Amino acid sequence: MTGKPVILCADDASTMLQGRKMLLEENGYRVLTAANGKEAVQAFVSHTVDLVLLDYRVPQIDGGVAAMHMRACKPDVPIALLSGDESLPPSALEAVDAFISKSEPMTSLLEKVDYLLSLRFLFQPLAGSWADEVEPQHKYMFPGSSGHLFEKQRHRKAGFQ
After folding, report:
1. Is residue 1 in a domain?
2. Which of 35, 60, 66, 147 shows a CA-CA span of 20 to 30 A to 141?
3. CA geometry: angle at 33 spanning 147 and 108, to 5°?
4. Is residue 87 part of a domain?
5. Sheet hosting strand 98-101, strand order edge to edge
6. CATH number of the domain that residue 37 is part of
């Protein structure tokens, strides 16, 4: 990995967006911002992004739909959906790798960001390598985790849902 990881944050509440941007930059990340779902998808497509933090209730295109567009474009980039509402429709969560409640402490947000990025960078070299050809039926799990995120990403790369 070269340089700082790039995180795309999308939220229509400008104070929340700027606060999250400052927090992430203070912790060593580069941050792109978007005020609505359409801007978020455009930024995602036109920039190199390592992680997306996407508010569910953004204007123009809601977070669930924006995540589907992003997933179709770059399936290996982790997407976390944020919301103050704990009961989102299951369809909103189909294209995301994690749900983060806006009521969680900032330290929890940073831990999840670190975890999602570590999985992306840890397993990125395995995509399309000999390891996929030798024993594709085996799970490659991050030690101490359930492996859910990586297995989900691995299946997407292989064309599974």
Report:
1. no
2. 66
3. 40
4. yes
5. 30-34, 6-10, 51-55, 79-83, 98-101
6. 3.40.50.2300
The number of distinct structural domains making up the chain is: 1
Q: What single-letter amino acid sits at 94? A: E
- Residue 114 domain flag: yes
Written as tens digits, the pLDDT of the chain (161 aa) is 457 999 999 999 999 999 999 999 999 999 999 999 999 999 999 999 999 999 998 889 988 899 999 999 999 999 999 988 777 777 778 888 888 898 889 899 999 999 999 887 765 554 444 444 444 433 333 344 344 444 444 444 444 44
Which structural domain, as residue segments, surrounds residue 77?
6-157
For residue 98, tell me if it sits in a domain.
yes
* Cβ-contact 99, 111 below 8 angstroms: no
Q: Which two tokens stand for residue 94?
A: 């189909």
